[in-house]
Design goal:
Elements lengths: L1 E7 L5 E7 L4 E8 L1 H4 L5 E6 L1 H4 L4 H10 L2 E4 L5 H4 L9 H12 L3 E9 L5 H4 L4 H18 L6 E6 L12 H6 L3 H12 L4 E6 L5 H16 L6 E4 L2 E3 L5 H13 L3 E10 L29 H20 L4 E6 L32 H8 L3
The chain binds ligand G3I.
Ligand G3I binds next to loops.
């Protein structure tokens, strides 16, 4: 009989020990990690929150550089945080993120230049079209040029589409018209040449939204403006991962000459009554919707492991088209899904548990590379 023992060392490396119980012979194999296991396939990323950027939690600080070679700021580069007033920018945390990534040889994906959500109050209040265009231009120029040569890529535009593939009725559409997407890419390219430029959305693996996304990309390309990739966010649900739609979308976006990224991956374990990741959508609180507050059955963790394994099998099949797979958070306790769409729940969407221990899903993803 043999069993694997996995432990996180002080340096954050996961050491696999193959212990043979019958013979008491113990073989310690090589230290392994997600980024190393997938180093010939695609980057493995995570979203970072403020304490993680500032390396305030020793366990997170030890684990992140061992497991991941790409990071996306979860919030600090969003307009509300980085550009709080017309003539005021707050770069401290984003500068720290860039320095942190350089220190650990990690690639940064900037997130995000143009998004209707988490916009600063002053921008929402601008009535005059010319002033709004000036805000739009100044924001992209200032933020993208500050991190020129320091971030590997930008989510230039985030979530500009409705579920049926039409353009979302945002302040950008209202004030600038549907050319705002092309204009954002044009400005980003000018401010930060050499940085990869992506369009990012959730549910854009779904057929109708995918069609809208393809149309949007073609419009940018037809204008002679550079767009390098499409991010499929990947906020999916246990037992309901849309594998066929994901594969068709990887092929469709690649056929446009684009790189494909999975940019915000998590597999949610709790019930809710709608799909997607529109942060403005909420659901009423109800104890029945928080069934695993004191722990989750192993059977569900095994099902999650199977879902993650099938996803990574698909990603490996298309590794010539996929350049990065980023998880939206480091461990379960830090996931946004504990607070949305219902606050105060206990969710389990990632590969590491609340104590930073690898979950069955981690082992399943690693087992594909053995
Ligand atoms: O920083 C403030 C704090 O000062 C305040 O006291 C507290 C009170 O609510 O709020 C804090 O801000 C919160 C912020 O996260 C930082 O924790 C916001 O309320 C909260 O709305 C915000 O949520 C973020 C969400 O985007 C909102 O836009 C999540 O952390 C973040 O994971 C999520 O990320 C998005 C991607 O950017 C785009 N795709 C969907 C994805 C999930 O919604």
């Amino acid at each position: 009989m043999k069993k694997f023992i996995l432990k996180i060392t002080a340096a954050g490396a996961i050491v696999a020990s193959l212990a043979y119980c019958s013979t008491a012979k113990k073989i310690t194999t090589t230290a392994v990690s997600l980024k190393d296991a997938y180093k010939n396939d695609f980057l493995i990323g995570t979203a970072l929150n403020t304490p993680q950027i500032e390396e305030r939690d020793p366990k997170a600080a030890a684990l992140i550089p061992v497991q991941f070679n790409a990071v996306t700021p979860e919030n600090c580069m969003k307009a509300e945080n980085i550009h709080p007033q017309w003539d005021q920018y707050t770069f401290d945390l984003s500068d720290k993120l860039v320095a942190y990534a350089a220190k650990h040889n990690i690639k940064v994906n900037g997130h995000t230049l143009i998004w209707h959500s988490q916009l600063p109050q002053f921008a929402r209040r601008i009535k005059d079209v010319d002033s709004f265009k000036t805000f739009f231009t100044n924001h992209i120029n200032t933020v993208a040029s500050r991190y020129k040569g320091k971030v590997f890529s930008w989510d230039v535009v985030n979530e500009a589409l409705n579920e049926d593939g039409t353009m979302r009725k945002s302040i950008f559409l209202d004030k600038i018209g549907d050319g705002f997407v092309t204009e954002a890419f044009r400005l980003a390219e000018k401010a930060s040449p050499g940085t990869e430029l992506y369009y990012n959305d959730y549910n854009n693996e779904q057929p109708k939204k995918r069609e809208g996304c393809i149309a949007l990309v073609k419009k940018v390309q037809a204008a002679g403006v550079r767009i390098d990739g499409v991010g499929i966010q990947g906020h999916w649900h246990l037992g309901r991962v849309p594998f066929k739609d994901i594969e068709e979308s990887i092929l469709a976006y690649h056929a446009l000459g684009l790189k494909v990224m999975i940019t915000e991956l998590d597999i949610e374990m709790l019930p809710r009554n709608f799909q997607g990741a529109d942060v403005n959508q909420r659901q009423a609180s109800n104890p029945a919707l928080n069934p695993y507050a004191n722990g989750i059955p192993d059977s569900l963790l095994q099902q999650q492991a199977a879902d993650y394994a099938n996803l990574f099998k698909l990603f490996l099949k298309h590794k010539d088209k996929i350049t990065r797979v980023t998880f939206w958070g480091v461990n379960d306790g830090q996931s946004w899904l504990n607070g949305w769409p219902i606050p105060g729940r206990t969710n389990y969407p990632l590969l590491f548990d609340r104590a930073f221990n690898p979950k069955p899903a981690y082992h399943a993803v690693m087992a594909l590379k053995k």
